[in-house]
Design goal:
Largest sheet: 3 strands, mixed
Oligomer: single chain
Distance between the termini: 94 Å
Helix content: 40-55%
Radius of gyration: 39 Å
Amino acid sequence: MSSRLMKKVLNEQSAALQLHSDGDDDDSESPQSSAPSRNLFSLLGDEDDDDDVATDQEQAEDANETSDHAIAPSAETAAFHTRNVNSKKKKNKKKKNSNKADLSLANHTESSDLNLDSLSLTDGHQETCSPAKNKILNADADADADAKLPRKPFKTRVLEVDPKFISAENELRRIFGSRVVKSHDRNSSSANPRLMRGGRRGTHNLKKTIIISPSQHWPRWDGSLTMELLNTLEGVHYFRYTHSSSYAQAQRAFESAKENHDLNGIANILLNHPYHIDSLTTLADYFKFTGEHQMSADATAKCLYALECAWHPLFTPSRNCQLKYDHDMNKPLFSALFTHMKNMDRRGCHRSALEICKLLLSLDSNDPVGAMFCIDYYALRAEEHGWLEQFAEEYQSDNSLWLFPNFSYSLAICRLCLESKEVLGGRETDAGKATSFELMKQALMLHPSVLKKLVVKVPLNDRKWTSVVKHSFFRSEETGSPSVDHLIAICIEKSYIIWRLPDLQKLLYDSAISLIETLEKKESDVNDWACVRKEAFSSEKNEYSHLLVSEFSDSVPTMPPENLQDFIVDQRGGIELPEQIPENHVLRDVANRSPLAVLFESILPWVNYGTGDGEDEHHLPGPADED
């Protein structure tokens, strides 16, 4: 009860006692008899706590001490009312607490019933649920469409993408620490003022994404791309990118610039449409060939940021979602992810590259960009040996990945690393699995031509390898199958650097020597393994000709400035090198040129600022020059 109401009650009680002392015999009209009819205790609210009651008691005692000659009866009456207030308050609190306890118990019981119902439904038992339970179970059906999807197959479960490891910035923080990464980013921004070019003035909040951490100097996402849901078959959602009207105009301008081989026109498109995918891809390829790797990676990251901002609300990476490569609008995502994966590998972020590779495989099971032939390499570099063995066993549910050249050798390396960990940890090796020595011999029997190419590519210059390579079984560099030869070339180009470890070289040499001794006793094994290889790759055509070996190489091709005008923009927006480049090409001598012209050419290399041989070095090309 509030202090104001308590004072009012005390005043009424004092007036009643004064009238009673004056000899008024009319009890029906006295305030004392009329006070209970007002039901003053009904004014007490349920939200008043014990602190308010204690405060009211203190104020009542102070009022009693300052009252007149009727102080004793007023104190007794106030104490009576206070006891009633306390008892009433306690009763209300007990009733309220009991109601809350009953409600919470009912909710807990109902939630337990729902959990049991959902568990029984999962096990296949039919039960009848109340309408309330059905309403709760189906309340979020539209918001989470994957709740009623069937159990995911092995192929999708083993390709689950972990958002914590897909970001390169998170991996760099785990390796070097947050302070080092922040200092590096700060120094990179100050040392490369061109990174700030093209960004809008002022600060703005960029949309958070899982693949790319956008830089603060990037423009705000313009919403020019969207993603639509095509259909849903057997619990799998199929999506496709769509373009807005403004993006379509930028695309037409890009096609026009591509036909004219106008790189300046492509750069101008990005001024008005900073997230035009084909223009960013072209710019990324251009910077790559000119040696500006940071600028190339930045352009690729912008592509991925725009593509991820356009994701459909139901689209979740590697969770029953497919983006078929057959749709032309979906192709830029695959090419950008593949390029970003290689950029992460160059930066040493092998775990992030592995997550990107898993994402590529989960988006389209047909593997249009060849992620299958580099996922084992990233798993070994990221030291995910247990996951690699699980992937080889569960991906296609037929245990046939070991037939590919890259997996046959990578699984032997994986088993060697796991054996080393078991020895260091004091654990016993699994007797049910083949040893690394046996797996390496099996890989050499299945794909013997890999050994000679590794000796040349690594290189292995020790004399002991000479006698091994000269053996008749390892002498041939061709297998007779175009598909196998192409996959072996990709395997060597991608993972040759791993074989520089001494332990792997020892395992390879010991297995080769043991295999040579075995072949001298049993010649029939050679024909048996040849039949296995021929049956696994029976086609007489190269089924993987669309995968370029250079795309899996760590080396980055470069071109001199003179040949930049000879670039050809392909259909995907990338840039191709000319078919023939002079081998003994000499760069232009910059000693006799204007430093200002050299500076401008370093910023815009495709613009000709003169050679210093009597030409105007500061003359910019204009309409008159084009005529």
